[in-house]
Amino acid sequence: VALFRLHGSPAEEPHLLLECDSSVLDSIQKHLKLYKIRRKVTIAPCPELSLWAVIPGEQPGDSSSLPKCADPALLLTPDPRAEVMGWRLIAKKGANLSEIIPGSQVGDIQDYHRHRYKQGIPEGVKDLPPGVALPLESNLAFMNGISFTKGCYIGQELTARTHHMGVIRKRLLPVTFPEPLPAPGIPEGADILTESGKRAGKFRAGGGELGIALLRLAHANEPLCINLGGDRVKLKATTPQWWPKAAAK
Predict the structure, then answer these.
(1) Do the record's keywords include Transferase (predicted)?
(2) What is the rounded CA–CA span in Å between residue 80 and residue 76?
(3) What is the pTM of this model?
(4) Cross-strand partners of 89
């Protein structure tokens, strides 16, 4: 989930745009309406808008070089999670993207997922299963996803205490499979083991030779594998360069 402010100043009537996994659109609306509590707040989906990810090339330029959009129903802003994810573009359906960002090339959704898996960026209910994924283990503190000064929210005390103690034993990490995978690929939630057979974590989701997994940091640099139907599938975890330097300790 990402929040974007559409109003230009605090004096204007506030308009917020919430980006979410489309598979949980109904449940998120019900959840927000539950906490509206007689406030004059309108909560409605925006089917007239489309969402795009603008991914930088091998040598990304300054975000200030991107065009600034004047239409209040169209937003172009740096991805709030990490600089390596480029920008988020929200436009009216049917908009000509080549006019908004001259020289851009339209990829497909798999290009986007491959890019974020390489960077270890989780997104949606597959990567962050509700009721299972913990915010600190999911690296949300690195991605502007947690406020340690705002209260109150469910799990705030545990999250804040764990953050300040600095003891986080598991994290989501990008993983790669050096060899072709047997069909139909790695099932979500598959156990990841060390060479000696110790449990190192669980595979969350992925595509092709790339994926994301929740791993114990103590085993993250060891040779890892998944037992799949009698086959031993090797994989390797890496620490993203965009993380804070001390994050993997």
Answers:
(1) yes
(2) 11
(3) 0.84
(4) 52, 76
